[in-house]
Amino acid sequence: MESYEAIKNIDEDEDVEMGHQQKQIYESRSVLNNAETTKNKLHSPTSLSSTVTSISTKQQQQHQQHQPQTQRLVSLDVFRGFTVVLMILVDEAGGLVPAINHSPWNGLTLADFVMPFFLFIVGVSLALAYKKLSSRVVASRNAILRSLKLLALGLFLQGGYFHRLGDMTFGVDLKQLRWMGILQRIAIAYLLTALCEIWLKTDDTVNSGSSLARKYRYQWAVALFLSGLYLCLLYGLYVPDWEYQIPTEPSSAPMTFSVKCGVRGDTRPACNAVGMIDRTILGIKHLYRRPIYARMQECSINSPDYGPLPPDAPSWCQAAFDPEGLLSTVMAIVTCLIGLHYGHIIVHFKDHKVRMLYWMIPSSCLVVCGLTLDLFGMHINKVLYSFSYTCVTAAAAGFLFVGTYLMVDVCGYSSLTMILQWMGKHALMIYILVACNVFPVLIQGFYWGKPQNNIVISVPLSIVNMLIMFSTIAIIAE
């Protein structure tokens, strides 16, 4: 049967090619006849001018007819814009409403969906960007360059160069530069996913779900390998005792804290393999200094918010821990690869019902798998980027994407989401200006009398960021 289909396709290609050849012969004869007619009219300047104008007009019309008509997937921009709004909401209101802020350790809150949603969108976009490749080498070089640019931007914005608001200084000690961060994680996931899409796909024809899986089977093998590697390291590595120091006054020696571990397969804050790998490879001075687990009841009297230490606080409460560490980034790549699969469905299937069906099936399987693993002890944990967290958040991204696609691209309610579309197209700019506090840091340099009297300190930061965002939207809309 497959041989028959292949022969049928070859015959169809030959018929199309013969049709093109006959069309070219007909057009050549027409050109000769037109040239002979035009030759008789060359004695008149007016006729010559009109003939040249007519020929150029026909050529422009033929060129416009042969240009491919590309239609942008509006739901992808809307989904990205919604994620930006969600990011701003949890950043500005998370301190006031701890229920939507990041979970201190195990569990899932509204803020914990932001990072997986961005990674999912990156995967979908890569499938659309690399559906047709003229050169794999050139595409790989461009992907590496984009990743390096994003990585450099992340180091500049999140490496510590910009201090917290209210601190009128800037600059970073390279001995304490934070190597990892949100943009750095996205850069790594983008690069590896792009290389998988460029190099790890076969030439199989896709006409069903099984043929889709067969075409991209090597990419699924990479996702399974990364998941297995993460689980083996998380539950198999031995975590020894360790210690860290907290600087005090310049004239005093730093305080040293010892953490007792000597365990294997622990997923609590003090003795997990994720933190151990980061401390060993990156160095504890290059990690995030305000760990999320400092909001746990063991470490804060204001839990689930930051606060003073309780009298009997464990020794690890003030230790640095990076929520975008090396081992957790491995599972972030898997989220990006899942998004890549959803993008493949867009590329190979054009029917709306088929697309949504092939999106709903893996989303349903992922959410069942993630909740089952959480029930049996593999807890949903954003900081560790656990396997159950990967499944549940990727499923949530899939369900939300299906709903957005149904509303915008199928039912046509795109005019109701114009602001989200704009925010989705300028997500990186909004993230830099608002989430990274670049614009507030710049405008706090304007003050009355003394540096402390500036608009950033006088007005709540959430109001400043919202004014910045809506002002930018109004300027672009005009």
Task: Sum this structure up briefly.
The chain has 478 residues and is mainly alpha-helical. The chain has 17 helices and four strands.
Explain what you see.
With 478 residues, the chain is an all-alpha fold. It has 17 helices and 4 strands. It has helices at residues 2-40, 45-66, 74-93, 114-129, 136-158, 182-199, 209-215, 217-236, 273-281, 326-348, 352-375, 387-410, 418-425, 427-435, 438-443, 455-458, 461-477; strands at residues 238-239, 242-246, 255-259, 263-264. Helix 3 (74-93) packs antiparallel against helix 4, helix 3 (74-93) crosses helix 12 and helix 11 (352-375) packs antiparallel against helix 12.
Low-confidence stretches: 1-53, 63-70, 472-478
Discrete helix count? 17
What is the makeup of the main sheet? Answer: 2 strands, antiparallel
Helix content: 55-70%
Oligomer category:
single chain
Q: What percentage of amino acids are in beta strands?
A: under 5%
Mean pLDDT: 81
Question: From the helix content, strand content and strand pairing, which structural class follows?
Answer: mainly alpha
Strand-and-helix sequence, N→C? HHHHHHHHEEEEHHHHHHHHH
Specify Rg, calculated over alpha carbons.
28 Å
The neighbouring-strand order within the major sheet is 1-4
- Roughly how many Å apart are the termini? 58 Å
How many strands in all?
4
Q: Given the C-alpha coordinates, what overall shape results?
A: globular
Protein name: Heparan-alpha-glucosaminide N-acetyltransferase catalytic domain-containing protein
Keywords: Membrane, Transmembrane, Transmembrane helix
Pfam families: HGSNAT_cat
